[in-house]
Amino acid sequence: MSAIILLHGAIGAADQLEPLKALLQKEGRDVYSFSFSGHGKMPFSTKGFGIEIFAEELHQFIIHHQLEKPSVFGYSMGGFVTLYLASQHPELFGRIITLGTKFDWNKETAIKESAMLNPATIEEKVPKFAEALKQRHGEENWKLLLSKTVAMMLELADKNLLNEAALKNIPNTVFVGLGDKDNMVSQEETNNVFMQLPNATMYMLAESKHPIEQVDVKLLPGIILNLD
Predict the structure, then answer these.
(1) How does the average pLDDT of the chain come out, rounded?
(2) pLDDT tens profile 103-154
(3) Is the pLDDT of residue 228 over 70?
(4) Fewest C-beta atoms under 10 Å: which of 47, 90, 151, 197?
(5) Where on the phi/psi map is residue 11: left (φ > 0), alpha (ψ -120 to 50), or beta?
(6) 187: CATH
(7) Within a domain: residue 131?
(8) Cα–Cα dist 227/95, whole Å
(9) Helices (DSSP H) in 77-175: which residue ranges?
(10) Band of residue 226 on the pLDDT scale cut at 50, 70, 90
């Protein structure tokens, strides 16, 4: 049985996937997870910040742990990172499972999403979320992380890393997932990517919104393990 790597989303960290990791480990699976640089109190990379940097970190993680074609579950940004790396090095992976990955990045979308990442606004309107970000990423780092994430979103709008050519270059079996109550990612953009991938299936996760904390995690092991 291949190992499984779990990847978190933007402004998230590996600890958010611990409940899923525990459920998969109960099934006897070899499960790995890590936080991308700048997330979860990991230092920011001196090489930069963004999808391409995170893809290289995933590449190095696989090499370091000597994983042979692991399956990858990528939540949100984690799915984008995995597909981007797979478009360049499909031989690294077994099956790829995404959930709630936003693929349609244009200027309007980037501006809309980045507006919700203003630290001052978060502290004023959703102080509990601000405190959670401080605890997860560190008092000194969380605001910088938000700033860098905004820049990444704007860059994605200008640079389509998962264009049609890239998606067509992924021969791996890919399961593209979306929560049925996700208000950040549309079914249309998810379906568009599913249609462009050579070997893909699309699934809907019932009673699940976009935040990983509002996903019915108990449904995921069955989806992930049934793929094997």
Answers:
(1) 95
(2) 999 999 999 988 899 999 999 999 999 999 999 999 999 999 999 999 999 9
(3) no
(4) 47
(5) left
(6) 3.40.50.1820
(7) no
(8) 8
(9) 77-88, 107-114, 119-125, 127-137, 142-158, 164-168
(10) confident
CA 65 to chain centre: 20
- State the pLDDT confidence band at 225, using cuts at 50, 70 and 90: confident
In a domain, 76, yes or no: yes
Residue written as tokens 């990517």? 193
> What six digits make up the tokens of 127?
């102080």
CA-atom Rg of the chain in angstroms: 17
Tell me, yes or no, whether 167 lies in a domain.
yes
Indicate whether 113 belongs to any domain: no
Q: Which range among 3-17, 52-66, 107-121, 214-228 shows the weakest confidence by mean pLDDT?
A: 214-228
Please tell me the number of Cα atoms within 13 Å of 83 on its side-chain side.
33
Rounded to whole angstroms, the Cα distance separating 116 from 121 reads 8
Total residue count of the chain as it appears in this document:
228
3-class SS of residue 97: strand
| The total number of structural domains that make up the chain | 1
Separation CA 4–CA 224 (nearest Å): 9
Tokens of 201: 């299936």
